[in-house]
Amino acid sequence: MQPAEFARINVAYNRVFCPGRLSVGLVLPLEAYAAGAEPALRGHLEAAQSAEELGFAALWLRDVPFNVPSFGDPGQVFDPFVYLGALATATSRIALGTSSVILPLRHPAHVAKAAATADVLSGGRFLLGVASGDRPEEYPALNQSYDDRGARFRDSIDYIRAASSAYPRHEGAQGTLTGSIDLLPKPHGTRLPMMITGGSQQTPDWVAQNGDGWMTYPRNAAAQGQAIVDYRRRVKAAGQPDKPVMQSLYVDVVADPAAPPRPIHLGFQSGTGFLRSYLREIETLGVNHVALNLRFNQAPIEKTLQLLADTVLPDFS
Questions:
Q1: Is the pTM higher than 0.90?
Q2: I need a surface site. Which of 38, 55, 223, 288 has the fewest CB within 10 A?
Q3: Residue 108 lies in a domain
């Protein structure tokens, strides 16, 4: 029997993630752009406001410190934490998340302070997705080692968790907190909800035990279902309550609602009929949130957002 809700953490966590239910969010920027190109970012705050008004559950920001040509995607260009401040004032209800902050490239004290600030300024609407990073070219630019990023990721998680308490005590590779100084502000809720992306150079048991949920990628139904069952089995074995699972999905939504699917990078092109059936399927597999990325969408984004709001969101609100 599923619980009525996941652990009470903050407003965003408990609005976006509900046991047995799927909610739908969007990856910023809300525009299409070619591989290797930079997004124009025209009207980006207005687009975020439109997504909120249409009823999408969350907006997700990527952490892309450097534009790496081989990676082919500079993300939303803006620093995610600075951008979160702008989005917090431009919106009032929609959740704001990072997918994901590259912890080994940032000091955990800065992450803890910036994340708690975003959480407070947004009234508890912040979700902290974190990852170990997958672009080796960025590490020398910050004088960091790529090979030991997994260890720094673990140390950062412990540091950020400790910083949520008053006058914290923590001793780790990236600093010592003696209890004589405090880090402000504190999160809006009980703590910062941290969603771990993929494996993040950790064991599956560590991921299940130390995150507040799991961010993963699209797989075929059998593989995705098994991955979620395995994750939740490990959560239960750790003696913890159930935790949410979310996934990303690139989509190119075409006008014909009956259009069949055609594979694209980490997703598909299709009409809304297939998209609805796909979302229902992953909901039954245990996915609690999907973050749609419209980067490869060929129709005008405004038109697609309205189409999704009219024909898809009513089934997943």
A1: yes
A2: 223
A3: yes
Residue 120 domain-assigned (yes or no): yes
DSSP the chain: ---SS-----HHHHHH--TT--EEEEESS-S---TTPPP--TTHHHHHHHHHHHT--EEEE----S--TTT---TTSS-HHHHHHHHHHH-SSSEEEEEEEEGGGS-HHHHHHHHHHHHHHTTS-EEEEEE----TTHHHHTT--STTHHHHHHHHHHHHHHHTSSS-EEEETTEEEESSS--SSPPSSSS--EEEES-TTS-HHHHHHH-SEEEE----HHHHHHHHHHHHHHHHHTT-----EEEEEEEEE-S-TTPPPEEETTEEEE-HHHHHHHHHHHHHHT--EEEEE-TT--S-HHHHHHHHHHHTGGG--
Domain count of the chain? 1
Range of the domain at 82: 24-245
Per-residue pLDDT tens over the stretch 129-181: 999 999 999 999 999 999 999 999 999 999 999 999 999 999 999 999 999 99
